[in-house]
Specification:
heterodimer; A: mainly alpha; three-stranded antiparallel sheet; 3 strands; about 5% strand; B: alpha+beta; Penicillin-binding protein 2a (Domain 2); Beta-lactamase; 2 domains; five-stranded antiparallel sheet; about 35% helix; elongated; disordered C terminus
Amino acid sequence: MRLNRRLLLSFDWLWFIGLLLLSGAGLAAIWSTTRGTNLSYYLGRQLTYLCLSLVVFLIVLCFDYHVYTDYISFAYLSGLAVLGLTLVIGHTVHSNKSWLKLGVFAFQPSELVKILVIVALAKYYSDTDRDYLELSELVTGGLIVFGPMLLVMLQGDLGTAIAFVSIYAGLTFLGGLKRKHVVVLVIAAALTLPAGWMMLKDYQRGRIQTVLNPASDPHGLGYQPQQSKIAIGSGGFLGKGFKQGTQGQLGFLPARYTDFVFAVISEERGFLGSISLLGLFLLVSYRLLRAAREAKDKIGSMVTVGVFSLFLFHVLINVGMNLGLLPIAGIPLPLVSAGGSSLLSYFAAMGLCMNINMRRFVN
Amino acid sequence: MVKLQPESNRQAIQRRLNWLYPSLILVFSLLGVRLWWLQILRGPEYARLAEQNRIRSIQVVAPRGPILDRNHVPLVDNRHSLNIILYRELMKDLASTSAFATAKLGIPADDLAAQLRRNRRAGAYQPIVIKQDVGIEDVSIVEANKRDHPEIQLGPEPRRLYRFGNLAAHVLGYVGEISEAELSSNAFPGVQGGELVGKAGVERIYNECLMGQNGAREVLVDSVGRELGMLEEKDATIGGDLQLTIDFDLQSQAEGLLAGNVGAIVMMNPRNGEILAMAAAPSFNPNNFTPRISARDWNALMNDPDHPLQNRAVQNSYPPGSIFKLVVAEAGLEEGFIEDGTHVICQGAAIFYDAIRHCWNENGHGYMDLEGAIKNSCNIFFYTVGQRMGIEKISKHAKALGFGGRTGVDLPNELLGVVPPGPRWFAGETISVAIGQGPISATPLQVIRAVSAIATDGKLVTPHLLLKAERGPAPGPWPEQQLAIKPENTRKIRAGMWDSVNSGGTGHGAAIPGFDICGKTGTVQVISAERKKEIKKDLQDFETHAWFAGFAGRDNPEVAVVVFLEHGGGGGAAAAPMAKEMFRAYYAKKSTTDTVSKAAEHSPGGEVR
């Protein structure tokens, strides 16, 4: 057994408790919004996913993280294959063909692939001893990320796809950029943006426009952000209480146990609850960043920063859209939103980072 | 295997990691500040919005009160009707809704778009009426497509039903949505935009009594508008009953007599001013204004040269013609210009103020005292009296009898008529006025009121239509005024009026053997005889106006009638027979029921055949 006493002592309990509290907040919100409705099975399902996630978390924790990084190319290619398979035989939910059905379980491979991409890119970038990345490495790294991203985009899941950009950005920054390469990347981004805008569907463009002008279409595309703001604002300082949030309970909030779960918690728990939730996210983010600093090798830092980037990006986009600051994109709130694939992937990722953190001392 | 990295590389990574801390602070301060802004600073406002979201107040339109005749015959009440309504919050996409509404329900896409634009600012849960008062075909189409178009539903609305169509249309009036002008002028205090108000007739005058109290249902709803529970329900209260003095049978009789004519008939109790019938022709169907009058119908009403919306009994005035001789007679008697021996010798014409004036009878009436002059409607007698008395005295007595002033009837837009003298008065005009021609005009209601005063020895009543209002201002007391007229003077005038009807006078067309009917005819020249000869055309527009005003019985009057026919011919030939039919209907009614008039019941003079 590789889990010796010293490793156990290095386990960051506060970090772990932070993860559990976030998942617990999610469970409470799901309970609050689905109890007594025909969706009441969501709570049991989420609880099952949480147990499963904790098992995966523990397994990931058990073995030295180099075991995973050494075999990443195989895992990465398998992940690509599954993504491709999903495109062919996948199951469509809300116009996203991103679900794979295994018996009773439906799974979104794209969530797990993000973790594989982090590790794969971290592995690739950390194989060099140089302080800066060469242009060829930037391009190859780009291919590692944008290959799966393209497949996810083909599934129609734009929100998940955009998250890949954050991975590339975070790890490339850490790998080191020469000034001229920054210029190259900026130009590349500048060229891609208009094309991306053209590729967006009308409703997606509309969602971006409603952020700039929320009153433009209160009954159409502006409805969801408006209702979300009403939910959060009406929570006030102390909130309306458990199961008392009218916006969430009466269905004015869309996707109230998934994408808009933050609004539900803010409505029922008030500023006190929502700022505490933000505090927990800050705690976990901080722990990730600290783990990256303390990691004993480059790949450890790289993997942790990749997870940090993805995590912070998800929190920013999801909470930002709940607060009406950012356009609506189908991005769940890490650890809190209902959804097994995302929860499992995040616990696996957190397991990996805590693994790296536990093994930070060079032995 | 663990691969050790060079120290420089490690330092570079640490340096870059330090850069990530500010990003952490930036992201979380941004989100935290926004939370503070939404929840603390603007919390109360959003709390209000959340309440508005879940609680909605749905107005329940109160039906207007029914209008009954004096015997409780319902003239106006309400019927159930269905509107097609659009719930925008249930609408999936406008294109399919619009296509459905146009193809299946016949609602033009433009109309629908306009309605949506108009209600842009209203909450999405507020239903929009897209088609009013639909028939069974539309109802079945909406029901059949419930599944595909849940946004299109049916909603009930009580609607005004004028049970007898045109009957008493001018008295009853009609209803319509309150206009912008009425809203801004506060013509109907407390009435909100979109509500129905009376636009004419008693619907307008007694709008407050007739309008019910709208109810409201405060319901808790979810985001798709499903009602989850009732918070508070306030039932709509139907408006108050309005009982009119109108008698359905007499009104029907009057309407029947006027059919095809232009004019008015009013029957009134001369003792208390209760109007038993008030008909004007041409008429209109107030049901056409419900739910909304079509542009075609409206234009037809507006462009009709006979102005069907005008209530000729009160909203137009005409020279009273020979009926005005009664006023001149009253003035002459009171002022001492007509005494027991006063008479003229009528030779068919005479000179007044250097002009030849004709009597209607070119052969002359010969010896004419007051009674004979009234009976035969002799112009020469009244020219003479008028000339002696002068316009001031005629005018004074005309005004005392209610000419040129409001009768006080409970109808809107009553016309005052004209009483001389005007600003520039020529003595010759006094001669015309003495026989009710020239610059003098009165409404038929003013005429019947003045004649009633003569019938009742000078009691000037306020004609009115309201018998009992269940709610709102209590009816009356309707002001009555006792004029300073000597009873023996009115008795003399009545004697002339009795002769006119019953002993071969101009009003003999109104005679019913056995009944004490008194009356006076009037025939108004629209154009002078000379001018008519010049034009040499016998156009309908130059035909004389026909008048008859009278009452029964002679010394215990219980009912008065005025008949006016615009370009209807001679008063004796055209108007008097109609008055006769009105009297006949009155007595027929009286012999079968005792509810015609309380005053009539106690009147000893009311003979029943």
